[in-house]
Write a structure and sequence with these properties.
By secondary structure, the protein is an alpha+beta fold. It has three domains: about 140 residues, Butyryl-Coa Dehydrogenase, subunit A, domain 1 (Orthogonal Bundle), CATH 1.10.540; about 110 residues, Butyryl-CoA Dehydrogenase, subunit A, domain 2 (Beta Barrel); about 140 residues, Butyryl-CoA Dehydrogenase, subunit A, domain 3 (Up-down Bundle). It is built from 14 helices and eight strands. The chain has a four-stranded mixed beta sheet with strand order 1-4-5-8, with helices on one face. Strand 2 and strand 3 form a beta hairpin. Helix 7 crosses helix 9, helix 10 packs antiparallel against helix 13 and helix 12 packs across helix 14. The protein starts with a helix and ends with a helix. The N terminus is likely disordered.
């Protein structure tokens, strides 16, 4: 079938978005110091705990990173950042996640809230929040999803109505990771119109979670952790400067923000501690069978391809572009890979020749087997992402 011109142009765009990119030497040089820091900071931490990585909340660890100058790497120096490139942050993120560092405290603020405020916030907001984020003193949660809308962000019902002093916030959010531990939330809300208006009338607010009228309910997940919360807003009075950017520009802003959330190494490295623990076990064996070798090859090849795609997006972010479509593609493929790794490892262990499996490996596998269904939910469900991809390719 011959594609129409719109489809052909879109396919060309998606191909070009995955350009070959190399990490500049000055940014690659960051890898050594980070590895040495992590070797000391994570000494003795069992793999089942390290496997939690960007769900592991440790404010002291985040502040230790900040003292090294490794938070706010891409922020301008005038706001307390290091003024480094997107490649520098890629190197840092890759090392943190591969090692299983507990990055959850600062992750959202550093990865997406800070770039959002830098781009769309007022100067007063930049001066107030960005240096605090870079020092590891200000952490954020995200208020996007809602109980009745899920990943359909255009259907947001939580409302912020104008008042004499600013805004009155009503509604609720869910999937708000660490809302019970963070002082602020960056929330997508409706400031005009109705959910039927879809993208129109949406805005973003910086919400102080200590304000009266806010209830945060941590929820227990299948692994026994409490990082996922429901947050209720009952006529919460927000100041006028809670608004980020222009009223009604929330859809444009949140779309740009999601490109940061969906494109990084965290979309392919969530199961890497398990892979490394399994490899360490295999090295103790006198030999491995052909099926295990095939699994190792599959793991290595897919990691290499996904990493190259993610690096290509880092290059586009460095140029100031908004690779929303490409980021959605990487997120979909990356989370599919992350979910597959525990299954591959379990199958390989099932077909082993009766060699004793270390308890640490089994514990790590058990945790990731339980939590891996969430990988394709966080940052947008697979169905939503594939709709975005199809629309971007002119297929719907």
């Amino acid at each position: 079938m011959v594609a129409n011109s719109r489809e052909a142009h879109a396919v060309q765009d998606i191909t070009l978005s995955f350009e070959s990119a190399r990490i500049p030497p000055e940014d690659e040089a960051l890898r050594g110091p980070v590895r040495r820091f992590l070797a000391e900071a994570l000494r003795g931490m069992p793999p089942a705990l390290r496997a939690r990585s960007w769900m592991g909340f440790d404010a002291d660890f985040s502040r230790a990173l900040a003292r090294q100058g490794w938070l706010g790497l891409t922020l301008p120096t005038r706001y307390g950042g290091a003024g480094r490139s997107a490649f520098a942050r890629f190197v840092l993120s890759e090392e943190l996640l591969a090692a299983g560092a507990p990055v959850s405290a600062h992750w959202i603020a550093d990865r997406q809230t800070a770039p959002l405020i830098l781009r769309y916030g007022s100067e007063a907001q930049r001066e107030r929040f960005l240096p605090a984020i870079a020092r590891g003193e200000m952490f954020f949660s995200i208020g996007m999803s809602e109980p009745d809308t899920g990943s359909d962000l255009a259907g947001v019902r939580t409302r912020a109505l104008r008042s004499d002093t600013g805004w009155v916030l009503r509604g609720r959010k869910i999937w708000t990771t660490n809302a019970h531990r963070t002082p602020y939330m960056c929330a997508l809300v409706r400031t005009s119109g109705t959910p039927q208006d879809r993208h129109k009338g949406l805005s973003q607010m910086l919400v102080d979670l200590s304000l009266p009228g806010i209830t945060v309910r941590p929820l227990l997940d299948i692994t026994g952790d409490r990082h996922f919360c429901e947050v209720l807003f009952d006529d919460v009075a927000l100041p006028a400067d809670a608004l980020i950017g222009q009223e009604g520009s929330g859809w444009e802003q949140v779309t740009a923000e999601l490109a940061f959330e969906r494109s990084g190494p965290e979309r392919l490295l969530s199961s890497m501690v398990l892979a490394d623990t399994w490899l360490a076990h295999l090295r103790t064996l006198p030999a491995v069978d052909a099926a295990t070798l095939a699994t190792l090859g599959r793991l290595a090849s897919r990691t290499a391809v996904l990493r190259a795609m993610s690096l290509g997006i880092a290059a586009r972010l460095e140029r100031g572009e908004q690779p929303v479509l490409a980021a959605s593609f990487v997120k979909d493929l990356g989370t599919e890979f992350e979910q597959a790794v525990p299954l591959w490892v379990a199958q390989a262990l099932d077909h082993s020749d009766g060699a004793a499996v270390p308890p640490a490996l089994l514990q790590t596998l058990a945790y990731l087997t339980q939590i891996q269904p969430s990988f394709s939910l966080r940052g947008g469900t697979r169905q939503i992402l594939r709709g975005i991809i199809a629309r971007g390719l002119g297929l719907r």
